[in-house]
Specification:
The chain has 388 residues and is mostly beta strands. The chain has a single domain, classed as Beta Barrel (Porin), CATH 2.40.160. Helices cover 10% and strands 52% of the residues. The chain contains 5 helices and 20 strands. The strands form 2 sheets. A 16-stranded antiparallel β-barrel has the order 1-2-3-4-5-6-7-10-11-13-14-15-17-18-19-20. The longest helix has 11 residues. The radius of gyration is 21 Å and the shape is globular.
C-alpha cells in the first residue's frame, strides 16, 4: 500500500507549482467579513448516511446529523474582533469550537487569545464540509491529528506579504493525559481522547503550537507545522515539591509530544490535489504505560494523497476524487508489542455535486484494511454539507 502512496505522490508533485488554491475557513471568512460589517452570522452543517457493506452479513446503516455549527463574529473597532463557533454534534452534544479575540497591530502582526484551533495539517483548520472531498473527514485527521483539535491559549499570527508567508505561533494548554486516577491516552485512538476542548481545562505544563504557510509559487500552498510540549496530569495539583516519590509518580503520568506536519494544496484550472504527512514522536511512553496500564505508542504516523477534478456546468460542479490514506498509532512502541490492528490502509473514491455556492451533495465508497485483517471492509457513505 505504501507503493500506492508513492505513486500518487509522484503523480501529484510535478503539478504542485501550477496553481494556487484559494481557500478560507470559517473563522477566516468571519474575520474578512468583519472588515465591512459590525456583526457577522454564519454557520455550517453536515448530515451523513454510513452503510457498512458485507457479502456475508446484513448490517444496519447509520443516519446522523453529524454536526451543526453556528458562527458569530463582532467588530469592536478596526483592530479588535471576536470570533466564536458553537457546535452541536449528533444532535445531543454541545461544544464551543472557537472563541477568541484578535487584535491587529499590523497585517504582519496580530495578537490572538482564547479558544483556538491548533494549526496542524489541513483539515483541522479547514474542516467545514464544503472545503474537503468525501462525506467524512480523512481518518489521518482523526487518529493522528485529532480534528477538531482546539485548546485555550494566546499568541501571534500574521501575513508577511513580501515573503509570501503566513505564520502562527501560540502557547496553549496540552492534552489531558491522566485524570480521575486513570490514563487517558492509548493505542486505539492515539492522543485524541486527551483533547480538553476548553471545557474547564487545566494546565500543568504549557505547550507550543506553530505553523508557517508559504504561498509564493503560483498555484502552490505549502505548510509546515509543529506542536511541542507535554501532556497534562492532575497528579501535579497540590503536589509537595519535596516529595520525590510523588513527583516521580506524577512524571510517569505524562508524555512528551513532538509532532511535525507537512501539507500541500494546489489547483490547476479544474484539477485539484492535496496531501499531508504527520509524524508524532512521544517520549516517556514506557513509564506511562507501566503506570497506567495503557498501550500508547512511542511514535505515530499518518499520510494521505488525494486528487480530484471539477466538471463545471452552468450553475453546478461535479467533482470526482480518489484518496489513499495510511496511518499507524503504533508506528513505534517502547516496552510493548506493536499491534497490527492499529496500522491501517484506506482507499476512498467518491463524488461531490455542488449545487450552489455553499451546498454540496456527497457520496463515496471507503475501503479500509488494518494489517491484522485479510480483507478490506467496505462502507458506502452519502452526505449533505452546507456552509453560509
Amino acid at each position: 500500500m505504501r507503493k500506492g502512496l508513492l505513486f500518487l505522490l509522484g503523480l501529484a508533485l510535478p503539478l504542485m507549482v501550477m496553481a494556487q488554491e484559494q481557500q478560507v475557513n470559517g473563522a477566516g471568512r468571519i474575520m474578512k467579513s468583519l472588515n465591512e460589517k459590525k456583526i457577522v452570522i454564519g454557520g455550517y452543517g453536515q448530515i451523513d448516511y454510513n452503510q457498512p457493506v458485507s457479502g456475508d452479513t446484513r448490517q444496519n446503516g447509520k443516519l446522523d446529523v453529524h454536526r451543526m455549527v453556528m458562527l458569530l463574529g463582532y467588530q469592536f473597532n478596526k483592530r479588535t474582533k471576536v470570533v466564536t463557533e458553537l457546535e452541536f454534534e449528533h444532535v445531543k452534544e454541545v461544544y464551543v469550537e472557537q472563541a477568541f479575540v484578535n487584535y491587529e497591530i499590523s497585517p504582519a502582526l496580530n495578537f490572538s487569545g482564547g479558544l483556538m484551533l491548533i494549526p496542524m495539517g489541513i483539515v483541522n483548520e479547514y474542516h467545514e464540509p464544503t472545503t474537503f472531498n468525501g462525506v467524512e473527514r480523512p481518518n489521518v485527521d482523526s487518529y493522528i491529528v485529532p480534528t477538531t483539535w482546539r485548546e485555550i491559549g494566546a499568541g501571534i499570527n500574521g501575513n508577511l506579504t513580501n515573503a509570501a508567508l503566513r505564520y502562527q505561533l501560540y502557547v496553549v494548554n496540552g492534552f489531558n493525559g491522566y485524570a480521575d486516577g486513570a490514563g487517558v491516552l492509548g493505542g486505539k485512538k492515539g492522543i485524541r481522547s486527551g483533547r480538553q476542548k476548553g471545557a474547564e481545562s487545566y494546565i500543568s505544563s504549557p505547550n507550543l503550537s506553530a505553523k508557517i504557510d508559504y504561498y509564493g509559487i503560483q498555484g502552490l500552498k505549502l505548510g509546515l507545522s509543529g506542536y511541542f510540549g507535554k501532556t497534562q496530569s492532575e497528579l501535579y495539583d497540590g503536589l509537595d515539591k519535596s516529595d520525590e516519590a510523588a513527583n516521580a509518580m506524577a512524571d510517569s503520568s505524562t508524555v512528551g509530544i513532538a509532532m511535525i506536519g507537512l501539507d500541500a494544496r494546489y489547483r490547476m484550472n479544474n484539477f485539484q490535489a492535496r496531501g499531508q504527512f504527520i509524524y508524532n514522536s512521544l517520549s516517556n511512553t514506557k513509564e506511562y504505560n507501566e503506570f497506567t496500564g495503557r498501550d500508547l505508542g512511542s511514535a505515530m504516523l499518518g499520510a494521505y494523497v488525494e486528487v480530484a477534478y471539477d466538471f463545471k456546468f452552468t450553475e453546478t460542479t461535479l467533482t470526482p476524487f480518489v484518496r489513499y490514506e495510511h496511518y499507524n498509532t503504533h508506528q513505534k512502541t517502547d516496552g510493548i508489542e506493536a499491534k497490527d490492528a492499529y496500522k491501517v490502509d484506506e482507499f476512498i473514491a467518491g463524488i461531490g455535486y455542488t449545487v450552489a455556492d455553499g451546498v454540496v451533495f456527497k457520496a463515496d465508497m471507503q475501503f479500509r484494511k488494518p494489517e491484522s485483517e485479510d480483507e478490506y471492509s467496505k462502507i458506502f457513505n452519502m452526505g449533505i454539507g452546507f456552509w453560509f
